[in-house]
Every structure is written in structure tokens, then in C-alpha cells.
């Protein structure tokens, strides 16, 4: 068994959602089986990595690494750089090591390096090995090279990419023979009009000259050495070409060669690796309120030791659920019905780099992680993904340890949207702290909006209206929820200045720390089966393990909101929510990491409408002199229309400080309260009422049927309607 590496990216310090210590989790990683191919960021160098986040000090750092274990014991390993399409290095005698800065910047090889390449393109079309990127972030230009994805065939991994006009399939292999590690790169190349070169190694001799790197070629390629580089030259050709090169340091005996095969035969789907369906029994909650909380029990004790910390959820058209885990899995859940009496779980994919968003489009699974937007293909219909397609990886990456990629949505035209964090290092390409948009075919990436700190989630409503949250810290004193608009700039700078933070766009609302200290995502209620909430905006909290409704008031085009919490208690921090295409109920998933009230590592839940009366607020309106708040039930007018039943406070957040402030809070001067003729709306008069970044209400009312109502609302008043 091996260590799960998918959390080694960026997990130590200040991200409110995902910071963690690796020590408490390491035992789970050691027990897990995540297959032969893992994706993460790492330094492919021997020795200690300096405790810095400066690129100049990271030597052979790989932002998008594909580490492939070439033997079951994980003693022979190779790492591909899918930005530069090079083999960054290969090593023997161990898998991966942590320590020092590697905990926030990725691991280093645990064994002995056999060969490496530097941070330069892995292929050359014109004979040059210079890096053409300016700035040096993101993948190579597509006309030079393009990573397409990986095919899995049992434990064999086939890397697919293009070099110029040439399609390339490459399968690494390795063996120990007479005490020497032999690493083989098997190639199938398509036709090409160009003479090509593929880089094998740099600095081919060890410092003491005791061990020479040898290259053995079978097929039409030729070995060359020039300027400290070891590479192969490949002639232009009208047809396909199969060849291999074997690299070994020391040893004079070469193991018997295997037959050269066309690798295309291995790209049609391989044998199932997790051919077992796990069954669990869900738990229905009590139908005592208008909305009940059900738990869809996960198979935490599964044969592969997969750590089921759920990060996102979506549905197939037939009602099956697809869930991602923080550790890189995708699971498919069937048997979801009203009673939850027989949930069937299948592991669909693994080895992804922290997939924190998922979308099912035309029954095809898309996930988004730090490295790329991935489209998963089950090529042979056995219930497991065989091809992990790079749908888009055009964004540049930095050494920012909080450069997480969150959530995934599609609009009516089929465009994809996701959030990119990264608030300590400013990307040279300006692609962190942004919402990104990807075209329906994956060919085009663009920045949709800028200026966020650490967004965990967003929403896209049926009318195209979008919202997004952010997380407090580094100048953001509370949790904001914004209306998201194209080309909007939301004010956060990756590097704070002495002048503090300036809000360019007014949020819909600010949520104080004690109410929601770490936001999840939002969701618009589109289901007819979810009762009186249809059309509402929902918000989830990772930090408080909660579900909220955002009551919206629009004045002169500016949204402002009051937020009320559902009377439900989740056991995990809530990350994502989706409505089921068949039963119309709300399904949510979440996890436990750093700074959350969660008591379980992961959870999958359903919030179900019971048909019982709704005792929550359903709307609000500001007016000169006060607010009107509407409830989902008739109220006892005499009891609920008393000033003593309401209290609150208001204050403005100091905008020039990165720290939370509790100064300036003032008791809300409520002078009169009455229940209006509709029996559901409470009109509240407030002295000198006007805009405030924070306003809160606490109430203790009585419904017409005698039920006591007690809760609190928090939000923001951006402006008042004109008039008397």
C-alpha cells in the first residue's frame, strides 16, 4: 500500500477552509490504494527543499506532476511534467518524502534519483531547448506541445500528448535487473512533417563520475549528447513509428527486451481495478419541521482505504450521484430513493489532484482540481474511468500554497466556470484570485472576474444570475457574498498594503465570524418539489456546518441580503449542494479539515421537504425608516407585533484593517413593530435607518398555530429606496 499524495499541495497555514496538518492524516494515506498514477505539485530533486516559496529556490519544481509507480512496491517511479511535456525525473528505492517546506510545496522523491531534466521543454521541433513561455507560467503553447491525458490499462499508464503536428502515446516501464534500475519509455508516434527530438536527461554523469547514464534504443530513433543534454532524434515520417529507449545508471547487462507494440491497443479500456459494489443503509431524519435532514451513509471502511472526505456532488440524468473526494477519488452512488434502504457505491476514478468541483454534462463526468479541468471516460463500460482527459489546463500556476481551485458550474451555452484562489503570490498572468471561464469544447480559457481572496464556491441561477462567496482573512474582515458579474473586480489584492483593503463592489451581505466564518457555495432553488423555497438563494457554510437562506432585496440594481440559518445540524462542513433531477430534493456534501465545527471527516446528506408549515423568514424589503420581514406562516399579530419581541444591532466594518473588529456596534433603535394585513409580514420601524455593512435581528415570535419562532438574521443594507 502507499501514501496518498493528493493533499501534499498547500495544506499547512492560513486557508480558512483547507489548511491542515499532515501528521494527523498520514496514517490514512499510508493505508490507501490510489492506483498507479497520481497528480500533484512537487519538487523532483534530491535533498532538502529550502523553506521558501520563491521559484528561483525550487530547483526542479513541477507544478503539474503525474507520478507513475512502475512496480507494485513503489520502488521504481517516474514523474512527468505535463506543462513542459518532459520526464522531470525517475528514481528508485522509495516513493515520496515529506518534511520542511515540502509539506506546503509538495513532496520530494524518497529514493535515489536516476536521471532528471531541467525546467525546459521535453521536446524540440527546431533543435532549440529554450522555454518559449513569457511569462513562464502555464503549459507550453499548443503549437509546440499539448498534454491530452492518461489512459489506464490495469497498472499500465499511457500518457497522451501532441508535439507539433505529431500525436504521441508514451508508456513508461521499469525493472530491477542485477541490482540496476532500468527505466523504459515506450513510444508510438503518429505521422509528422518535422524532425523531432525528445529530451532524456541532463548532467548524465554523477558528480564523482562513478556511474554513467546509459541509453539503449530499439526502433528508428538515435541517441545524441550535446551541451550536457542527452536526447533522441526522430526523423519525419509519413506513417506511425514505434520505438523504445531504456535508461540505466551503471550495469553492463541489459534485461531481455519486450516486443515493441502499438500503444493504441491499450487505449480502449482496461480491466476493472475496483470491481466491487459496496452497499450502505441511509438514515432518514425526523419529519418534525418543514425540512428534514437525511444522511446517505458512506462506505468509510472500503477495501482500498479511500478517505471519503466529499468535496463536490452532481447527478446523472438517471439519478445516480457522482461525488469527488478531497483526496482525489470520484465515486458513483446508485439506489437513491425515498427510504435510502440500499445505496450502492462504486469507485469510478482516483489519482486526481484535489478535485473540489464536479459537473455531469450529458452523463459525462467533469472534475476540476488545481492542475486542470478533467473529463473522465469509461471506454469499455465497466463502471470505471479508463481515460483521464485534460479538458483544459491553460491556467498558469504559482508556488502559492493556497492556490486551490473550487467548484464547477455550466451555463446555458455549455461554458464552464470555476474559482481560483491564491492570495499570497500574484500570478504573472493574473489568473489567481479569479473566476475562470472555459468554452464548451475546452479550447478557450478566460478570466471572467477578478479580485477574490479564497473563494470556495459560487452559484449560477436559471436566469444566468451568478453569486460567489469569499473567506475572511488578509484584509477581508468577514465572509462576503457577492453578485458575480463579468469583468467585475472585487477588490482583493494578493499583497496587502498599509492602507488595507478597499471594496470595489458592495457585497450582497457580510456575514459575521460567529455566524459563518468559512463559506461554502451557493445554490438557487429550482425544484418544484422543495416547497415554498422555490426561487430562493441558498448558502452553505464549511466552518459552521450549516445551510442558510439568503433573503434578497434589490434597490436600484444593487442586491442586499439578510441571511437566516436552517434549523439543521450537519456533521461535516458543507462544501457543495445540488438538486436531484428525479426527486427534486437538495443533496449536500462536505468534509472536515481545518477550522470547522465538523465532527465527521466526510458526509453526504439530503435536505427533504416534508410538507409541514414553514416557520422561517422568506423575504425582506428595506424602506425609508425601517424594514419589512416576511415569514412562511401566519403570525400571531398581537404577540409578534410587540417591540420587545425584536432586538438587534448595526455597525460598519472598518475598511482599513485586516483584522476583525467588534468596535462600533450599536443597539438597533427599533421604535415600532406591527404585523401587516397579510398576517405574515412584520413591519419594523428603526430610528435614523440607513445603510450599514452589518445589521442583525433577533426575534422571538409566535405563529398563528401557537408554534414559537426564535432565530436570528444577519446581513447588509447597501442602500434604501428613494421616496417617503
SSE map:
Layout: H1 26-31, E1 37-43, E2 61-69, E3 76-81, E4 86-92, E5 96-97, H2 102-105, E6 108-109, E7 112-116, E8 123-124, E9 145-153, E10 156-163, E11 166-177, E12 180-189, E13 196-202, E14 213-218, E15 222-226, E16 229-234, E17 241-249, E18 278-280, E19 291-295, E20 310-315, E21 321-325, E22 330-334, E23 343-349, E24 357-361, E25 364-368, E26 373-377, E27 387-392, E28 405-410, E29 416-420, E30 434-438, E31 445-450, E32 458-460, E33 466-469, E34 479-484, E35 509-511, E36 519-524, E37 537-541, E38 546-555, E39 558-565, E40 573-579, E41 586-591, E42 602-609, E43 617-623, E44 626-631, H3 637-640, E45 646-651, E46 666-667, E47 670-675, E48 681-686, E49 692-702, E50 708-717
Structure description:
The protein is mostly beta strands. The protein folds into 3 domains: 36-266; 278-609, Neuraminidase; 617-717, Immunoglobulin-like. Helix content is 2%, strand content 42%. The strands form 10 sheets. Strands 14-17-12-11-10-9-27-26-25-24 form a 10-stranded antiparallel beta sheet, with no helix packed on it. An 8-stranded antiparallel beta sheet has the order 36-37-38-39-50-49-45-46. The longest helix has 6 residues, at 26-31. The radius of gyration is 28 Å and the shape is elongated.
